[in-house]
Amino acid sequence: MTSADSIQLRVSRYRPDTDAGPHWQEYEVPLRKEWTVLDGLNHVKNEVDTTLSFRWSCRMGICGSCGMNIEGEPKLTCATFLSDYAPGPVTIEPLANFPVIRDLVVDLSDFMAKLPRVKPWIIGAEDHSQVEPDVEFLQTPGQLDAYRQFSMCINCMLCYAACPVYGLDPEFIGPAAIALAERYDLDSRDHGTSQRLDVLGAHDGVWACTFVGECTKVCPKHVDPASAIQRYKLKTALHTVKAFLLPRGAR
Amino acid sequence: MTDLRTYKPRISTWWWTRKRSYTVFVLRELSSVFIAWFVVYLILFVYAVGQSETAYRNFLDWASAPWVIALNVLALLFVLLHTVTWFSLTPQAMVVRIDDWKVPAFHILAGQYTGLVVVSLFVLWLVTL
User: Which fold has domain A108-245?
Assistant: First the structure.
């Protein structure tokens, strides 16, 4: 049944118990103006085939769970409308560059292991005796503006799926982790720059990036990981030059 | 936790043909080979000038061979691609802040192209002197 009222979803299926690799399965779903790809998948799950597996949670671009490759492009399925792909079919695959657990569900444990390595939290001044209890750390709007865009990351992993460097070299710490490191580095309350530099200046850190720039293009929250990475390159390079030229006290 | 039997997709050698932006990226990376070629060409040229007038004449004869001209034209195209793409990426890599004012990308780009024109004019003046 194909008509203007319906659209075909071409979904990548993989069941680890029975399948050697992924294969395609087609589903017809109603084509409604306000339906997203996620609505289509939920329709399949509820009405057509309960065995289909995929992740989702908030349906409103906040949680970052429902990232998938739609027509080869990493997208949040809750923010991608079926009508934009009419008359179809719409190809839906799991996020690229990650191992597939089942159907559209990918294994994110690699990122979960990498994220804490860049210490994405505020690292206070070492000398705690200087800090009064219950003290407030005020920021000007300008200081907030310096890191604000990097704080918008929702860990949806679209940038990793778009990054050919991560695909070819899974050791690369990756765009989102570096953008989050930059978020805390640029925070006026943070004192952890040198600690993060040790991690990001290593061979699997910022220097693995060749500036393809796709991470920034696919980000649904308008974070600019490509910028964060290049700015870190400048920072690590300056750090090295300073360490070489300046006496210890002046660094 | 039980071991997951995951499927690990392989990246095709031709991944960069899948998307225009990937192709442009790979061409930009490839352009560094032609930058290296221009460096070699310049070294050969300076070396010939330093040797003797005959060596310089021989270099000019070699440089006017059709294949050298073709290679240089191709190299020039790649160097231009390299320049334009890197210039357009600079505002992303260099965020210049003056107090709380973020210098707009346009100013950084304009600065780079002005620099290119000034240096090019200087080189032109130098070789036509």
Answer: Fumarate Reductase Iron-sulfur Protein; Chain B, domain 2 (1.10.1060)
